Amino acid sequence: MLVLGLPSVITAAADRAWAWPLAVALVLPLVWRRRRPAAVFVVVAAVALVQWTVGLRLGTDVALLVGLYTVAAWEPRRRAIAAAALLEVGALLAAVRFAPAGDVLTSLVFLSGLVAAAFFIGTTVQTRRAYLGALVDRAARAERERDQQARLAATAERARIARELHDIVAHSLTVVVTLAEAATVASSTDPPAAREAMGQVATTGRAALTEMRRLLGVLRTEPGDRGVDDDGLGDLAPAPGLDRLDDLVASARTAGLPVRLTVSGRPRDLPSTVDVTAYRVVQESLTNVLKHALDPSRVHVVVRWGGDDLAVEIDDDGRRTAPAAPAGGHGLIGMRERLALFGGELSAGPEPAGGWRVRALVPCPEEAP
Cys bridge to 239: 55, 180, 276, 329, which one at CB 3.0-4.6 A? Predict the structure, then answer.
C-alpha cells in the first residue's frame, strides 16, 4: 500500500518534509488491524486528520478504507456504523478542501461511494462468516443429537431385548422346573406319569429354543432384509400374540395350574406390538403364579374386548410364598414398560379374599367403518 501511494508521497515530499512520516503512519498501523480493528482505525483516522490539517494529499489515504473494511468485517455492527459515519465526515472534509474529482459535489459523491463500498464489503464478509459459523455449529449440534439419539435407541433396544429374553426364559424355565420336580416325585410311584412330565419338559425346552432362535435371528438381521420389516419384527418376530393364548394356557395346565381362559367381546386385529404386549402380560402373570403361588385351585385368565380398549385380567386364589414382585425382579417392571409404550395401565396386587390379581388395560380404539 505504501508502494502504491509512493508517487503522491514523492510529489508531496518536494514541498513537505513530513510527507514520508505521515504516509508511514497511515500504513503501519494496518499491521495490527486484525487484532484491534477499531483502535487501528482510530489511529489511522487521527493521522489522516493531521494530514488534512497540513494540507497534504497522499495516496496512502486508502488505508482509511482498509481500516473501515476491517472494522465492518470483525467488529459489532454499531462500531462499524460509527466508523463509517466518521469516515464520511472525513470524505466531506477532503472533498471541500482537496476536491480530488474536480469539484466538491463530484468529489463528495466519489469519496462517499468508496466509503459505502468498504462498509458493505466488510459487513457482507462478516455476515457470510457468521452464516458459515452457524452452519458448522448446526452440523456439530446435529451430529451430537444423532449420537444421542443412537445411544437412546440402543438403550431402548437393550431394554426391549431384555424384556423378550425375560419373558421367554423365565416362563419356559419355570414350566421346566415345575415339570422336572413333578417327574422326580412321580418317578418311583408312577413311572408313566414321570415319563410324560419329562416329555413335556423336552417339548417346552424345544419351544423355548425356537423362540430364542427367532429372537437371535431378529438381532442378526438388518432392517430391510427379506422377511424383516423396518421395525425389526416381521417374519422373524420372536413374540407370539393373543392367537396363541390357547397354547400358553395348555402349557400352564401341563405344569399343574388349573387355568381357565375366558374371552369376551368382539376380537379384532391389533398392531403386532400391542398383540405381543397383551400376550406377554398373560405369560408373565402365569409364570408368577407358578413361581409364587401355593396350591392354587383356580387361575382365571380373562381377555375382554371393549369399544376403545383391551382389558386383560389374571387372578388366582393361591397363597404367596414370597412377594409376587421380589426385589430385583423384572416381570412387573417389564410389563409396565411394555404397556407404557402404548399409554396402557397395569395394576397388580393381592385380593381381599386371598390370591393375586393382575389387570392390564391397553388402549386400542375400534376403527370407524
Answer: 276
* DSSP at 239: -
- pLDDT for 327 equals 39
Instruction: Check residue 269 and give its pLDDT.
Output: 82
pLDDT reported for residue 6: 46
Q: How far is CA 163 from CA 154, 159, 342, in A?
A: 14, 6, 16
> Domain spans of the chain?
6-139, 241-369
DSSP letters spanning 32-65? GTTT-HHHHHHHHHHHHHHHHHHT---GGGHHHH
Question: Does pTM top 0.85 for this prediction?
Answer: no
CA distance 8 to 28: 17
CA dihedral (12, 16, 20, 24) in degrees, to 10, reads -90
Q: What is the DSSP string of 233-276?
A: -BTT-----GGGHHHHHHHHHHTT--EEEEEES------HHHHH
Q: Provide the pLDDT confidence category of residue 262 given band limits of 50, 70 and 90.
A: very high
How many of the other CB atoms lie within 10 Å of CB of 92?
15
Is residue 103 within 8 Å of residue 97, measured between CB atoms? Answer: no
Is 82 or 174 the better-scoring residue by pLDDT?
82
Determine how many CB atoms are found less than 10 A away from the CB of residue 292. Answer: 20
Give me the mean pLDDT over the 46-69 stretch: 86
Q: Are strands 356-363 and 259-264 parallel, antiparallel or unpaired?
A: unpaired
Could you tell me which CATH class the domain 241-369 is placed in?
alpha beta
